[in-house]
Amino acid sequence: MKRLATAILMTVVALVTASGETTQxxxxxxxxxxxxxxxxxxxxxxxxxxxxxITYGADPTGIKLSTEAFQNAIDAANAAGGGTVLIPSGIxxxxxxxxxxxVCLYADYGALVSFSDDFTLYPVLDASFEGLDTKxxxxxxxxxxxxxxxxxxxxxxxxxxxSWRPLKxxxxxxxxxxxxxxxxxxxxxxxxxxxxxxxxxASYLCEDQNVPVLPKDATQEDxxxxxxxxxxxxxxxxxxxxxxxxxxxxxxxxxxNLHPFMCENLVLSNxxxxxxxxxxxxxxxxxxxxxxxIIENCKFDVGDDAICMKSGKNEDGxxxxxxxxxxxxxxxxxxxxxxxxxxxxxxxxGIKNVTVEDCTFIGTDVGLRFKxxxxxxxxxxxxxxxxxxxxxxxxxxxxxxxxYGGKGAGExxxxxxxxxxxxxxxxxDETTPAFMNIVIENITCKGAQRAIYFNGLPERKIENVTLxxxxxxxxxxxVFNQTNGLNVEELHITCTKGNALELSxxxxxxxxx
Length: 513
What we know:
alpha/beta; 30-stranded parallel β-sheet; three-stranded antiparallel β-sheet
């Protein structure tokens, strides 16, 4: 038995080494092809020592809690100067674990890591959530200020989000709803399920989306009393450097799935990221205030924005002042999601130097989605998007909405939209967002409600956008408002309702070929 385990470990180490070398070559080539000067993205260098979670007492049947075994194996690898922590085939039930520097967490074929639905295992910590400084429960997987870290292999990490996430009755069938309400509590006013009374009560404390649930003078006990409401992101990497996530599946997250925050040199390769389509805040990956990032050959099927660029929200984001910059997204497939590739709405620290190419969006609510609103501030600039194929888009193929109201596409009423658009025009200041210098080319969309929608702010219009070789089939055509500097070349739109192209009198400096 010991010889078999050793052989398995040696095979796993060989796979880790080979995968890392191959990926580094691919990454170097991608960096050279960027539309901007992309710094070299350094992958983690992991020592060849091995540490099996089984050796440290993990239970592969999932009956016993394996939190201590997982953490002890990670700590031992870190203390030894680094190494690979192997998760062999099996089911492992665990609480939150923290990844340390110079450690690769390797989930082998057949390995399922299921994070416990016992909320008391997740301490309430200082955190950033949806761009605001606040408190949340500790993430199932986290790392802080770590270097040279990886999560690799072929296994699955399940965040048990079904137990955490609220559920809207309107988003499921009658039988699904009846099964769900056998546990937890129901908010009859909103027709929404919550895991318990505390979570439901807390939901009313943060209906203003610009406040982090409780006031700043709240005690730790106050926060812990609403622990069930403080859903964590699945994977939270804070201030880390030289990171590789490759090959595994992340699914069923309590809130966002993957949240790298203030990280540098980050590669996501060949991942599968999944959430139910109805999952509240069930984003795929939210890259926030990071630099030197590559996302390639990944598949997303999620309940909110799929591949999203962020940099903090309002005053908290502006005070931090760390943009997301130097990002390449290539060869990804997105199925369900509120947007295939998304910028914002939390972009107060700025987003710049991003290339997105050769991606496929199948059934995403919106294809390319750029969103913000008054109060954010921040500058989005130097974005190149090309080679995108999309089909069955229920709303806009491409949208720039600087009157974003916090809801998914198609979920707002006409009255809600009109109230924001018709509000008095404020002066331009640090709270005014800016979107400029964006190129979108070689786009094909077969089936959308509306082909393109631009709606900038009258006080600061969308600036200098190039649309080239765009081929779209939609019910409605392209509508442009509040835009300055629109360069259009080879725009082909087939629509069954209205005009293929509508330019309002708020659009300036238009060049059409």
